[in-house]
Specification:
The complex is a heterodimer of chains A (160) and B (319). Chain A has 160 residues and is of the alpha/beta class. Chain A has 5 helices and 5 strands, in the order βαβαβαβαβα. Chain A has one domain: Rossmann fold (3-Layer(aba) Sandwich). Chain A is 36% helix and 13% strand. Chain A has a 5-stranded parallel beta sheet with strand order 2-1-3-4-5, sandwiched between helices. In chain A, helix 3 links the parallel strand 3 and strand 4. The N and C termini of chain A lie close together (10 Å). The C terminus of chain A is likely disordered. Chain B has 319 residues and is α+β, with helices and mostly antiparallel strands. Among the domains of chain B are: 50 residues, Complement Module, domain 1; 155 residues, Histidine kinase-like ATPase, C-terminal domain (Heat Shock Protein 90). Chain B is 51% helix and 24% strand. In chain B, the strands form 3 sheets. A 5-stranded mixed beta sheet of chain B has the order 5-7-8-10-9. A 3-stranded antiparallel beta sheet of chain B has the order 1-2-3, covered by helices on one side. In chain B, strands 4-6 form a two-stranded antiparallel ribbon. In chain B, helix 3 packs across helix 4 and helix 4 packs antiparallel against helix 5. The chains are: A alpha/beta (160), B alpha+beta (319).
């Protein structure tokens, strides 16, 4: 399995509206071909650490970017962030917290847990699109990720 | 009597309650002198009585007042404890409220703004010019609503944020903020007069918010002037330094001065000058947290001057 068939962006977002707007902004820059949308923290944990449902594509390489909302049903974003950053197999995956919250304590807590970036979703659609597109372009095209670490990931269903 | 004989000193002073003929009760303090005969028996007792009723009443009153005072103090302490708890609770509620505003209110506004824009981008043709105009109004208004929510959050955050005081180079800070504002208003020709400001002891990021708001207002309200003249200066006044930001712009009628620093209060329509009416309320809150004062002078169509004071660096270091 090569990177091309793997997942590049994982979007963890419970709001369908925000997800659609995010996808639209990314699509304008052809960044949605290898994108997975997970609707809550539980799905995110299953995707990274458990047996993912068949409906989800599996991945061999670590994604280049996780876009993580904080306020999520069942398991919240902090918990997902904590799990991702405390596991050897996932800790190098860039996690960008993308949330409505501007609370200082959320920003502080996110960085404490190891977030790579913290972006407040702008209310204005133009600004929102620009932010998401910039994020996608930077992390997926510009940023050099850590070497492909397929071995450590539990749910690499294909080749080990 | 035998006791008096053996220890007369113990009976020298005594106080008792007596009744006058008219029934009035009085307190008498007695001084007694015993005279013994040759056999050592009491022969005479010489007693001098002083009416101490008034003194005794006064003493009783003092005791009563003291007791009352103690009770009040205890009550007061209880009240302070309760009020503090109430305040802490109110603060926590406010915090929870602004937290949920930031989370829950921003999301639907973003959705409305986003979907309206998509409609405009993808279906402009089939909507026709009037349909497009209506949608543009929705987009503009949701943008404004988003700004309102953000400003309100900034305002509530400012009240809770802890202050970090340091020595600030006010000249440098004003120049920095002015450059930012000039870059945001490239079409405007502004004559900028900066008088020496010296240094201040305050929270740098908060004072930066103050200057940004005041200078951005100066730019905004002098938009129609050629040239716009903006002046920043300092007046030393004893224990405080008074700073001012002056412009030659639209100004306002002084009869509305009471509204100037209120939240959501505006003295201009959105058509004349855009804004949410939070800026100066925020500025006032910051200045008050620093122990300073804020006020303004203006004349309609001739410009406005906003003054704010900060306790001066020296005076503050003494306390």
């Amino acid at each position: 399995m090569n990177t091309q068939s793997g997942v590049e962006i994982v979007l963890v977002e419970d709001s369908a509206a925000d997800a659609e707007l995010t996808l639209r902004a990314l699509k304008k820059h052809n960044l949605t071909n290898h994108l997975v949308w997970l609707k809550d923290g539980e799905e995110a944990l299953a995707f990274f650490f458990g047996e993912p449902p068949d409906s989800l594509p599996n991945f061999a390489c670590a994604p280049k970017l996780v876009l993580l909302d904080l306020k999520l049903p069942k398991v919240d974003g902090f918990e997902v962030l904590h799990r991702l950053k405390s596991d050897k197999a996932t800790r190098t995956i860039p996690v960008v917290v993308l949330t409505s919250s501007r609370e200082d304590r959320d920003v502080a807590e996110s960085y404490r847990l190891g977030a790579n970036s913290f972006i407040v979703k702008p209310v204005d659609f133009g600004k929102f699109s620009d932010s998401v597109a910039q994020l996608g372009l930077y992390w997926v095209l510009l940023n050099q990720p850590s070497a492909c670490s397929s071995t450590g990931l539990v749910n690499a269903k294909g080749n080990p | 009597m035998d006791e008096i004989c053996t220890s007369p000193a113990a009976f020298e002073q005594n106080v008792n309650e007596n009744m006058r003929r008219n029934g009035e009760r009085i307190w008498i303090a007695w001084t007694n002198k015993v005279e013994l005969d040759q056999l050592g028996k009491v022969s005479k007792i010489l007693s001098i009585g002083v009416d101490i009723t008034a003194r005794r009443r006064a003493e009783e009153q003092v005791t009563r007042l003291n007791e009352e005072l103690q009770r009040h103090a205890a009550e007061l302490e209880q009240r302070v404890i309760k009020r503090t708890a109430d305040l802490q609770m109110a603060n926590r509620e406010l915090e929870a409220f602004s937290y949920s505003v930031s989370h829950d209110l921003r999301a639907p506004i973003r959705a409305i703004s986003g979907y309206a824009h998509i409609l405009l981008e993808d279906y402009a043709q089939s909507l026709g010019p009037e349909g497009q105009r209506l949608l543009e109004v929705i987009c503009r208004q949701t943008g404004f609503m988003g700004q309102l929510v953000d400003d309100l959050l900034a305002f509530s955050r400012m009240g809770r944020q802890s202050m970090q005081t340091a020595d600030i180079d006010m000249d440098g800070l004003v120049q920095e903020v002015f450059r930012e504002q000039a870059a945001l208003n490239p079409k405007q020709t502004v004559e900028f007069k900066l008088n020496p400001l010296g240094s201040a002891r305050a929270d740098r990021s908060m004072i930066c918010v103050v200057l940004t708001n005041l200078l951005s207002n100066a730019f905004k309200y002098s938009r129609g002037r050629t040239p716009a003249i903006i002046e920043v200066g300092r007046i030393a006044q004893g224990a405080e330094d008074v700073y001012f930001v002056k412009d030659n712009g639209a100004g306002f009628d002084m009869k509305y001065i009471d509204k100037l620093f209120g939240v959501f209060q505006r003295l201009h329509t959105a058509n004349e000058f855009e804004g949410t009416g939070v800026g100066l309320a925020l500025v006032q809150r910051i200045i008050q947290r620093h122990g300073g004062r804020i006020w303004a002078e203006a004349k309609l169509n001739e410009g406005a001057t906003v003054y704010f004071s900060l306790p001066c660096a020296k005076a503050k270091s003494l306390t």
